[in-house]
Automatic annotation (TrEMBL):
Biased composition (Low complexity): 213-228
Superkingdom of source: Bacteria
Region (Disordered) location: 213-235
Record's protein name: DJ-1/PfpI family protein
Length: 345
């Protein structure tokens, strides 16, 4: 069994190196039945981690056609703010690289297991690779994971068959030990645990069993954060709006400032008898505004976007004459400022 651990600029050291050491130890106790290497989407190179700028040499290029395990770590950076060194920005840059395409090639192969640690699942989700898949990430990112279309599960390790994901930073040990047990057997896993003087934490959630289809709520922290950002606000009946809904009608050119660049979006909004409908156009992509309504002078709606990453966003905007302002937000990701001007009525 061969394990490819993928590095990218800004990766978290512990996310990657803890599993690497587990697999290397497993090789000693299994007669070299497992091997591990550090790779990147670009090929052999020095990769700067997000932890103190420490650089690690990757040995080669990720091969999506090679059977075995591909493990993707998370990022190390600022957990607050939207600067270029923030965790969401680092993950988004990695998701926009060749890495997403390579993982997409691998994830459907019957002889490949894709594993992630911490924010690694968010990285894949940003590329649209985890839609309708059970997964976990760091507790601060659970609502963002849900916003990408994944199914968040509150467990230390989540086994969704060919996808195995781990929660926080130290879960890399648990993910790797679980994969050693699953693929090589409990004898080898126990031997590595004894060597490390470490025992796996938590119960592995698996997508099998009599209750496998039961919904699992995100951790309390994520649920509270979702409530704070109104992601579960009820939508008024029939999405009707008060009389000032007509203030939002028209064609608007807007600019959304995200952590990884600016997005130009044209909004086409109509208001008929107080009922709002609309579309958003970004390049060749056109998406309907979902459940739009006006509340306290704000137009609020949700929308699924594919650029710069796949996300379910919540928009809140206000208008003053021909000027629009507001924000778009998804889960733990920083709110992105929106500004715009009306082109036509």
């Amino acid at each position: 069994m061969h394990v490819q651990i993928v590095l990218f600029d800004g990766f978290d050291l512990l996310d990657a190196l803890a599993p690497y050491e587990v697999f290397c130890a497993a090789a000693m106790y299994s007669g070299d039945a497992v091997s591990a290497e550090l790779v990147t989407a670009e090929g052999a190179r020095a990769v700067t981690s997000g932890t103190g700028g420490l650089s690690i040499q990757a040995a080669g290029k990720l091969d999506p056609d090679k059977g075995g395990i591909i493990l993707v770590p998370g990022a190390s950076g600022n957990v607050e703010g939207d600067g270029p060194d923030s965790v969401p920005a680092i993950l988004a840059r990695a998701a926009e690289s060749e890495l997403t395409g390579l993982i997409r090639q691998a994830i459907g192969r019957p002889d490949v297991v894709v594993a992630t640690v911490c924010g690694g699942s968010l990285l894949l989700a940003m590329g649209g690779l985890l839609e309708n898949r059970h997964a976990v990430t760091h507790h601060l990112g659970m609502d963002a994971l849900q916003a990408t279309g994944a199914i968040p599960v509150a467990a230390r390790v989540v086994d969704d068959d060919s996808l195995v994901t781990g929660g926080g930073v130290t879960s890399g040990l648990d993910v790797a030990l679980y994969l050693v047990e699953r693929e090589l057997g409990s004898r080898v896993a126990i031997a590595v645990e004894k060597l490390f003087e470490y025992e796996r934490r938590g119960t592995v959630w698996r997508s099998v069993g009599l209750a496998s289809s039961s919904p699992v709520s995100p951790p309390a922290e994520a649920a509270e954060q979702a409530a704070e950002t109104h992601l579960s606000d009820p939508v008024p009946e029939a999405c009707t709006a008060p009389s000032d809904a007509s203030d939002f009608a028209g064609v608007w050119d807007t600019l959304i400032s995200t952590p990884i660049g600016k997005m130009s979006v044209r909004l086409h909004i109509t208001s008929i008898n107080g009922r709002i409908t609309g579309t958003a156009t970004q390049g060749d992509d056109v998406a309907d505004m979902e459940n739009p309504y006006v509340e306290n002078g704000r137009l609020i709606w949700t929308q699924r976007v594919t650029k710069p990453m796949r996300l379910n966003l919540r928009f809140e905007v206000t208008v003053q004459g021909r000027v629009m302002s507001g924000f778009a937000k998804a889960g733990m990701l920083p709110a992105s400022k929106l500004s715009g001007a009306k082109l036509t009525e």
